[in-house]
Write a structure and sequence with these properties.
four-stranded mixed β-sheet; four-stranded antiparallel β-sheet; 7 helices; 12 strands; elongated
Length: 337
């Protein structure tokens, strides 16, 4: 009975781990199966390489600090594209306005302000069709006006990511399906950079003190500095994969025709990993976030010993008196210095 319980516990744990792993990981493992090398083994190889390497003489010391901040946006703007065709310009405009009015009324009832819904007119052009005009000895193809096409973009600002579902529903109910993009905004970006600079200075002082504790007097080095900052939005870090599936072996045994099913492409958000950072602010991300980073690198080179300047001996000019006989009779004139 105990053995049965142990086996059951192992099976349950194995199933749980599989759920925690995710299909994206399984897909990546299938790609790497030919190499028989997983990410954990790669990381272990990096550690072993570091432990086995021999240190060579290098007078330069390098201290770098990397800080990352995961920021939840203060507001968002969703952009939808709409196209409306009518037989006349008045009809096309009226049909478009009716759709927009219904979307506005629905969103206002859900707490979105009217001023946060903006229309951007893209184009308003006639639509033509080709009419064939046949004669006895020739055929003509003429373009004649068929109607009008009105194209607009609908910009909707919202402050809570949970409101996006209501926006999608309101647009879909009025035949607006083309979601162009979603922009993320931060109200005070300078405050974010100020926090990053504070964390960098704090961590940098700790590392400098660490080198001093190891016996390196940094005052005997000349520092050189380089720094950078960057801001990445969620749309830059969506990846895709296709779910793994295998062909039935039973169908192969029966030599039946196999029709390969289309694999659905899955997209998911994978932010910057914080494994390479010294400090990560707000490390746990529940929803897609704006990732703002700042890095600084200091290189310390030993100061050159100052040598005393060599005093140059004074040079005094010499004067010679040449007789009319040329260089046969030359006398040096002694002058007081």
């Amino acid at each position: 009975m105990k053995n049965t319980i142990h086996i059951l516990f192992i099976l349950i744990c194995s199933h749980t781990f599989a759920q925690m792993k995710g299909n994206a990981t399984i897909s990546r493992q299938n790609i790497m199966s030919s190499k028989k090398l997983g990410n954990a083994e790669i990381y272990r190889d990096d550690i072993e390489e570091f432990r086995k390497q021999d240190l060579v003489t290098n007078p330069t010391l390098t201290i770098d600090v990397k800080v990352l901040n995961n920021i939840i946006a203060d507001s968002y703007t969703a952009v939808f594209n709409m196209v409306q065709i009518g037989e006349t310009s008045e009809e096309a405009n009226k049909l478009m306005n009716d759709r927009i009015t219904k979307v506005k009324n629905k969103l206002i009832s859900k707490g979105i302000l009217e001023k946060d819904i903006v229309i951007d007119v893209i184009s308003f052009v006639p639509v033509y069709e080709t009419v064939i005009e046949k004669k006895i000895f020739s055929t003509k193809y003429n373009e004649v006006p068929k109607g009008f096409e009105l194209q607009q973009n609908l910009h909707i600002k919202f402050n809570n990511v949970n409101q996006f579902q209501e926006i999608l529903s309101a647009c879909a109910n009025n035949e607006i399906y083309n979601l162009v993009k979603v922009d993320y905004f931060i109200n005070d970006i300078q405050a974010v950079y100020k926090q990053l600079r504070t964390e960098i200075l704090k961590n940098l002082k700790e590392k400098q003190q660490f080198y001093n504790d190891l016996g390196f007097d940094l005052t005997l080095y000349d520092p050189t500095m380089a720094d950078t900052k960057y801001c990445h939005f969620p749309k830059e870090f969506y990846k895709s994969y296709q779910a793994f599936s295998s062909t039935s072996l039973e169908a192969l045994r029966k030599r039946q025709g196999i029709v390969t099913a289309k694999k659905q492409t899955t997209y998911y958000y994978e932010p910057i990993s914080f494994k390479d950072y010294d400090v990560v602010i707000n490390p746990s991300i529940l929803e897609p976030a704006i990732q703002i980073g700042m890095e600084i690198k200091l290189q310390y080179t030993p100061k050159q010993e100052e040598k005393e300047p060599v005093k140059a001996e004074p040079i005094f000019p010499k004067y010679f008196l040449v007789s009319p006989n040329g260089n046969i009779d030359i006398k040096e004139l002694k002058l007081e210095q």
